[in-house]
Amino acid sequence: MTKDPLGPLSRRHLAAAAAVGLLAAACTTSPEKKSADAATDDATSAAPTPTPSPTPAVVEIVPADRATDVLPNTPVTVTASVGKVRTVKVTDDQGEELAGSIDAAGNWTSSRFMKPSATYTVEVSAEGPDGTPSTQQAQFTTLKPGVTATYGINYSGMTVGVGMPVAIQFDSAVQTKEMRAQVERLATVTTEPAVEGSWGWLDNRQLMWRPKDFWAPGTKVTVSAPLAGVQTGDTKWVGKDESGGFTIGDAMISHVDVPGHTMTVTRNGQVIRTIPVSNGRPGPETETRSGTKVIIERQSEITMDSATVGIPEGSPGYYKVETKWNLRVTWTGEFLHSAPWSVDAQGTSNVSHGCTNMAPDNAEWMFNNSRAGDVVQVTGSGRTFQPTEGIGVWQYSFEDWKGQSALV
């Protein structure tokens, strides 16, 4: 039998030590489990918050994308039912931008008409209620008119006399009063210095602006007529804008005394020449018309043919004659001109077909010293100059002229 080298006491000590070791090992596992639970808690508390979905603006563009045959006077509008409109750009197929603005409510509206027969592109940038940016685009076309109306601003770029009104003349009638009113609303006259005046329609083709009194010499007149997109008839629309203006020259005013057979010419209030004349002989078709006329045009030589004023060849009173130094004052055939054949009657009797006859030297002087817009005031005949027979704005009192506006 082999003897235990440790003996009973030593074995008991080892058993106890082993028991203590197991207990210590058991005690060390609990803190490890607690750390795992804490890590789980920490991971749970650090989970990311879900990102909310962006909210873009909701925008409506009128006219709608791909619309066709849009009336040129239709307003272009951009509105946001959600969020807000930031910028709007509307351009035609020529790259010209359509003016407009954003109002206090945040809506964009065009401030002028569109051109007919054009393609427009609308580009919008907007912002949602959460700041989300967005863009939107639309494209549409305006109608092609049956007739494209045209017009001009008469005498633009010229120096004219003190009686010349601003005249916007259409190639055909502006058919209704509301259409004429729309033209007036868009057309503007700016003068330097400022002058009181008014628009009025001489007829349905001619819109004119005259000052209360004759212009002051040196006045500068600027005309703006942005009329593209204006409707002038059932199928007529204006195709483009026009602008112009003129400068006022000396105050050249001539006074024709029909029974006295004289014409007194003044410049800036001073008499510079008194000319013997012969006016139209008595009769409903020949007597020179009384009234305040304006020189319409100057022509050094013309053929006067009575057939152009309703007296055909072969009729009593028919004439056809070459004349020089002609100053037209009516569309019905009245001129101031040279008439060597009536020199003996000039200053003593009225023998013409309605014109104011002068001797050749006086007619040439008058021609060289006159311009379109100079005033010719005729008195003493029994026949009255009608406003539409020439530039007849001065046949109205200023109050009556204002009544010719389509806005009243």
Automatic annotation (TrEMBL):
Keywords associated with the record: Acyltransferase, Cell membrane, Cell shape, Cell wall biogenesis/degradation, Lipoprotein, Membrane, Palmitate, Peptidoglycan synthesis, Signal, Transferase
GO cellular component: extracellular region
Residue positions of the active site: 337 (proton donor/acceptor), 355 (nucleophile)
GO biological process entries: cell wall organization; peptidoglycan-protein cross-linking; regulation of cell shape
UniProt biased composition (Low complexity): 37-48
SUPFAM superfamilies noted in UniProt: L,D-transpeptidase catalytic domain-like
Pathway(s) where this gene product acts: Glycan biosynthesis; Cell wall biogenesis; peptidoglycan biosynthesis
Occurrences of domain L,D-TPase catalytic (ranges): 252-379
Keyword Transcription regulation: no
InterPro entries with a match to the protein in the record: Big_10, LD-transpeptidase, LD_TPept_cat_dom, TAT_signal, Transpep_catalytic_dom
Record-linked Gene3D superfamilies: 2.60.40.3710, 2.60.40.3780, L,D-transpeptidase catalytic domain-like
Region (Disordered): 30-56
GO molecular function: acyltransferase activity; peptidoglycan L,D-transpeptidase activity
Spans through the membrane: none
Pfam family, one: YkuD
PANTHER family, per the entry: L,D-TRANSPEPTIDASE, L,D-TRANSPEPTIDASE YCIB-RELATED
Name under which the protein is recorded: ErfK/YbiS/YcfS/YnhG
Species this protein is from: Phycicoccus elongatus Lp2
